[in-house]
Amino acid sequence: MLKCDSLSVYYGKTCAVHDVTFSVPEGKIVALVGANGAGKSTTLKTISGLLRPSHGTITFNGERIDGMRPRDIVARGIIHVPEGRRIFPGLTVRENLEIGACLRCDDKTSLEKDVEHVCQLFPQLAKRMNQLGWSLSGGEQQMLAIGRGLMAKPKVFLLDEPSLGLAPVLVEKLFEAIKQINAEGLTILLVEQNAYLALNTADLAYVVENGRTVLHGAASDLLKDENVKRAYLGG
Amino acid sequence: MRAILQAEDITVRFGGLVALNGINLSVQEGQIHALIGPNGAGKTTLINVLSNVTTPTTGRVTFKGEPITGLPAHSATEKGIGRTFQNILLFAGATVLENVMIARHCRTKYGLLEAIVRTGNMLNEEETVRQKAFQELEFVGMADKASTIAGNLDHGGQRLLEIARALATEPSLLLLDEPSAGMNPQEVNSLMDLILRIRGRGITVLLIEHNMQLVMGIADVVTVLNFGEKIAEGTPKEIQNNKDVREAYLGRGIQYA
Amino acid sequence: MVRRGMWASACGPDVLRDAGTCGDVLCGSDVVHWAKRGVCMVVQLIVNGLAMGFIYALAALGVVMLYNALGIVNFAQGEFATLGAFIAYSLIAEMGVPYPLGFVVTVLIVAAVGVLFERIVYRPLRHKHFLTVIVSTIGVMIFFREFERIVWKPIPRFFPDIFEGRLITIGNVVIVPQHVFIIGVALVLMVSLYLFLNKTSVGAKMRATAQDQETASLMGVDVEKMIVLTFVISACLGAIAGVLFAPIFFITIDMGGTVGLTAFCASIIGGFGSIPGAICGALLLGLVEVFAAAYVSSVYKPAVAFMLMIAFLMFRPRGIFGEKVSVKV
Amino acid sequence: MGRRTRCAVAVGVVTLLAVFPLLGVGPYYIRLLNLAGIYVILTLGLNFCVGMAGQISYAQASFFGIGAYASALLTLKAGVSFWAALPLSALVALVFGVLLGLPSLKVGRYYLAIVTIGFSEIVRLVLLNWKEVTYGAEGVKNIPVPTIGAFTLNTDLRYYYLVLTIVLFAVFVSIRIVHSRIGRALHAIRMSDLAAEVMGVNTRYYKILAFALSAFFGGLAGSLIAHYDTYLHANSFNFMESAKILCMLFIGGSGSIEGPIIGAVGLTLLPEWLRFLKDYYMAIYGVGVVLLMSVMPSGIRSLIPQLARFVQRLFTNKQRAVRSEH
């Protein structure tokens, strides 16, 4: 469904992503695993159009999308939930959700239905609809960020470090929700530093080192891989 | 062995957020001490407190038996605490050599008038600055890049330059904030070697790291932070087998059906 | 070459002060108790001060919106006010266009200038060092001033009073209708701006863009368009402030500079980046200026705003409403 | 360039500057050169604060004014000779520089810009209204012209050598400071305040020092203008004057030595060459500043390396040609 082919991205003169190739099949959760600074987030930013690749192609359902404006990529149903949540601190929870749906020209009732849906997924948010974004706790902010992404009715979800700075309990809840969203038919590309968590959630995984994909396979196989264990699982 | 740095009951609050909650930390002289924990656990905040970039809400830090809490950051550097930054903070527009020369500032003394008149003392000091700066560049293996503009170095090079720059301040304690971020496995290997050589010079090292291979490979003591609290401390072996640590950080505890 | 003080002409004919003390003439002929006269003067001064305050508030809103959205301070902001005043003068006083129409056309023209400003000045400087941005906006300021000097000549113009010199008398209190008009228009504008930003989807998108451009673009918001819109609103607010201000003082090339810088001071006093803060700061400054001019000395009036601002920066750097700024390493 | 060549170039330039006005240049142009020299001192001063330490200041014209008034009043009212008033007025300005430097520790960037604008406005108003001391709006008249024994510096040409001496002093001091630990510290603060502090630079001290140096140079320039024009008015030292000096600095190229000199000399002489533009000059100037900042943010100075390479190529080609002849 979504394919990256020998992608390279430069920040000024430094190369952040170097020949990354992977594909995300429909309906699956695919994880990109690797250390901090390995180029995972850069890859996501390139897919969502924030950065331009200097080499390589990105195709979505057979259409080349590299170099498009973020708007046009969002319009095609690829939604990036950025690292660090990045909710709008001065907007209320409801406004945050509505911004997520800003490219859909839907009427109020269908919007309202989607807000309901997000509330079902994350009941904590329902109570906080009229609070400002910054007043939420870290976990709630992450839920809001995901909910905001869902409002756009995405086909592919790019999740960047959803567990960042969250308590283990919350992380567990969050990943259950992610699995549920996936079960409802949403394709997910997950970037996660906690390799153990990522491999336990994903169907397929790619290991990224220094801006290259060095290893890939079924997540369950990688979990058993000795090299992966040593480098990323601290075992 | 004695503690070179002692932090007692450090609490840092930003508005309503508690970044650090009553942390006690003691760094022994001549050791490599690693600080690990998930992102957002407060590791960088702790480093900021130790280098006097952030003033803690409560608590005190003593360095070589002398209280340093509340001093400006430059006097911590003068007293011998050097550091690097997680989000590389080089003087990007200056050359590699100039970057290291700036760090010699607190080890030189001549004043404005001496600079204008160019006294012998000033010229001597300048000569030493240049020599020492070159020495540090050689130490980290970057002498050949002395005249490169720092901003044009690759990621690994910038990290090394930060270390060289910190070393040029002649620290007795070096704080490294994620030195291996963005390095490839080979670079990480030579970084490990470099850190060992730094300790060999008699400099105590406190480092934040995510790369477990590095931490488990060279650290003498590991402290684990989670949510602004210290959840474990011990040798790398002990830490690896600690159940809390696995749950909070290494991630074994979270199971899915 | 005669170098003129930037604010020299603005503090010269102190019409405001005359309006403030006109109570002496109007109430004085009656046998009014001294204290009563004092009260009536205070009321008049309050109205004057609020009128000035609301003009500063409009300009300050423009400053704050631009700062929130783009993190830049436009030192040429006040020039939108001067430009607005001059254009309105030409349209209304010289060409005889009816006041309401002239007002609207003026604002539209200045809005167009705002769009040009965004395209020509702001875009190329987007990621440059803040010092470069500051110097560039000085360039813009010089250009505007010289442009006005060429078109309108350096002669102070007196904008016709739309109320034809009538005064409102309530008991012993005499109020200049223009002041009431200013307060009314400013209030209506502020309320509509509030509603626009908080109750419409475009407003929400604008606020989202101001808070986080990158994420807004990830949500499919047309960030470029929102930035242009911010410039347009900011320019319009400046222009409106200028047109409202024009009948109180002479229109001069230096006029906008005063309004613009006072607006900056107001937003700092209010807490930089806070919209309610900017409004409160501006009203406070308007009142303090008028009272200081009446009771202390009018000579230092142009410095009152700065002195108050410096006092705030020293003793309460967060301003009235500002949040604590923390440095991230 | 080796030490020798540098010395040779310096001696050459100084000789050229000293001899140049004797080659039949009209007094009007010498007056322009004198003004250019005074602006070079002002711009080099501002360079410490803005160019090197990165602290924005709209107050250079105020220091200019403070120096001018101090010098004029010292000679007129206290009977001090010009030669003592010159350094004294620079010191008076320096004290005000330190005063203005203090808030720069608390606020940065745009806030600092506004604080400095406020400072300069307050200074202007005080100079304009403190009648007992400053003669108020009338301005200071009949400021004595400097004399050396019986020799009076009463012509543009004679004053030229005084200005030249102070300019050379300013350039010399600037160069020496740039190439020292002080210059490095200031530069580090501009690049990253925090990194500089952590590398052991006392950023508070150096920020104040930067303001003090700026003010000192401003004071020197002020003293020179006071005894040259022999008349002062507070309104000359206004916001637009500061803006003009700031533009000179950035158009030439801030942070270097050659940049401020190019900017100050260029922008003083340019209006003379562009006289045909008449009233449009300043408007075009404004547009020019905007364009230059977006096209060449590091100023005209950034053309020098290209120019140097070009000259070098010409030179080497010639040498080669000479060699091949042999």
Task: Describe the model.
The complex is a heterotetramer of chains A (235), B (257), C (329) and D (326). Chain A is an alpha/beta fold and 235 residues long. Helix content of chain A is 38%, strand content 26%. Chain A contains ten helices and ten strands. In chain A, α3 (93-100) runs parallel beside α6 (138-150). By secondary structure, chain B is of the alpha/beta class. Chain B has two domains: 1-80 and 171-252, P-loop containing nucleotide triphosphate hydrolases (Rossmann fold), CATH 3.40.50.300; 90-165, no CATH class. Chain B is built from ten helices and ten strands. Chain B has helices at 43-50, 73-79, 96-103, 112-117, 120-140, 155-168, 185-200, 212-218, 236-240, 243-250, and strands spanning 3-14, 17-28, 32-36, 58-63, 66-67, 81-83, 173-177, 204-208, 221-226, 229-234. A six-stranded mixed sheet of chain B has the order 6-7-8-3-9-10, with helices on both faces. A four-stranded antiparallel sheet of chain B has the order 2-1-4-5, covered by helices on one side. In chain B, α3 (96-103) packs across α5 (120-140) and α5 (120-140) packs across α6. Residues 252-257 of chain B have low confidence and may be disordered. Chain C is mainly α and 329 residues long. Chain C has one domain: ABC transporter involved in vitamin B12 uptake, BtuC. Chain C contains 14 helices and two strands; from the N terminus they run αααααααββααααααα. Chain C has a two-stranded antiparallel sheet with strand order 1-2. In chain C, a hairpin with a 2-residue loop joins β1 (168-170) and β2. In chain C, α5 packs antiparallel against α6, α5 crosses α12 and α9 crosses α11 (223-245). Chain D is mostly helical. Chain D has one domain (25-295): ABC transporter involved in vitamin B12 uptake, BtuC (Orthogonal Bundle). Chain D has helices at residues 3-19, 27-52, 60-77, 82-106, 109-129, 131-134, 156-178, 181-191, 193-198, 203-229, 239-252, 258-273, 281-295, 304-325; strands at residues 147-148, 151-152. In chain D, α2 (27-52) crosses α8 (181-191). Classes of the chains: A alpha/beta (235), B alpha/beta (257), C mainly alpha (329), D mainly alpha (326). Chains in contact: A-B, A-C, B-C, B-D, C-D. Chains C and D meet through α7, α12 and α14 of C and α5, α11 and α13 of D.
Strand tally of chain D is: 2
The H/E string of chain B reads: EEEHEEHEHHHHEHEHEEHH
Work out the helix count of chain B: 10
Q: How many helices of chain D?
A: 14
Instruction: List low-pLDDT spans of chain D.
Output: none
Helix content of chain B: 25-40%
Strands ordered across the widest β-sheet of chain D: 1-2
The CATH topology label of the largest domain in chain B is Rossmann fold
Report the count of strand segments of chain B. Answer: 10
